[in-house]
Write a structure and sequence with these properties.
7-stranded mixed beta sheet, alpha/beta, 40% helix, 243 residues, Nucleotide-diphossugar_trans, Glyco_trans_2-like, Glycosyltransferase 2-like domain-containing protein, Spore Coat Polysaccharide Biosynthesis Protein SpsA, Chain A, globular
Length: 243
């Protein structure tokens, strides 16, 4: 007999120019949420300034969605993944919160064995079938992991992939990073406070439509700018929260 879900979930879906993917992803999120959450759970859909008609597609989908507990956050202009994550996490009210990309490259079925997350646990998925990454993206990912380890002591296999947080712990944090490095900030702070990272292998599904934006020059540039800021932020956090 499968484990009974006794915790509520918030699933944050990030969307930037995913008009061709978002319907399929939203349907899958609703189906999986019905399995892993003790109630209907909630979906927080963040549209980060899409220019491909995603807004109209999403509004149409909301009218016919099975799960009516959907919060729609629309950024009129693209603010970047960091700001989008802030917007999504701030809206979360479930016991567990997870961000999934709106491109459909994360297999949501991987959440099902982990319906009930223990206290002080980060469920951190890492990609093992990352064949769609270009050489430059693989180098960038390795560089990011090395920086995290050297400067803030964060040893996760794939800090930029899907992670599940205990929402109460996440809401207690004051997040200061606005780029994609915000995930490094979250993980490093929670681990310093005694949270354990449970790392789980994850598939990296091929895109069915659209183009990846994860390694755009704007994202890389902002992350580079934020590296020294992240170091300062984490060191200040450690001094304030000596264990």
């Amino acid at each position: 007999m499968s484990e009974v879900a006794n915790q509520s979930w918030s699933i944050v879906v990030l969307c930037y120019n995913e008009a061709e993917n978002i319907e399929r992803v939203l349907e899958d999120v609703q189906a999986k949420l019905a399995v892993i959450s003790k109630d209907k759970g909630e979906i927080i859909l963040v549209n980060d300034g899409s220019l491909d008609g995603s807004d109209a597609v999403i509004k149409g989908l909301l009218k016919v969605a099975v799960n009516k507990n959907i919060k729609y956050v629309h950024h009129p202009v693209n603010l970047g993944i960091g700001k989008a994550l802030h917007s999504g996490y701030e809206q979360a009210s479930g016991d567990n919160v997870v961000m999934v990309p709106g491109d459909g490259q994360f297999d949501l079925a991987e959440l099902i064995p982990y319906k009930n997350i223990p206290p002080k646990t980060i469920l951190a998925f890492y990609r093992v079938e990352n064949t769609t990454y270009t050489l430059s993206r693989n180098i960038l990912s390795l560089f990011n992991n090395v920086l995290n380890w050297l400067f803030i002591g964060l040893k996760l296999k794939d800090v930029n992939w899907v992670k599940v947080y205990k929402n109460s712990a996440l809401q207690d944090l004051t997040l200061e990073i606005n780029s994609s490095l915000v995930e490094s900030e979250i993980c490093s702070k929670l681990i310093h406070l005694g949270h354990q990272a449970l790392e789980v292998k994850s598939k990296y599904l091929p895109r069915q439509a659209g183009e990846s934006k994860g390694a755009s020059w704007a994202i890389i540039k902002q992350a580079i700018i934020d590296i020294p800021i992240l170091i300062i932020v984490f060191r200040r956090f450690k001094r304030k929260n000596k264990l």
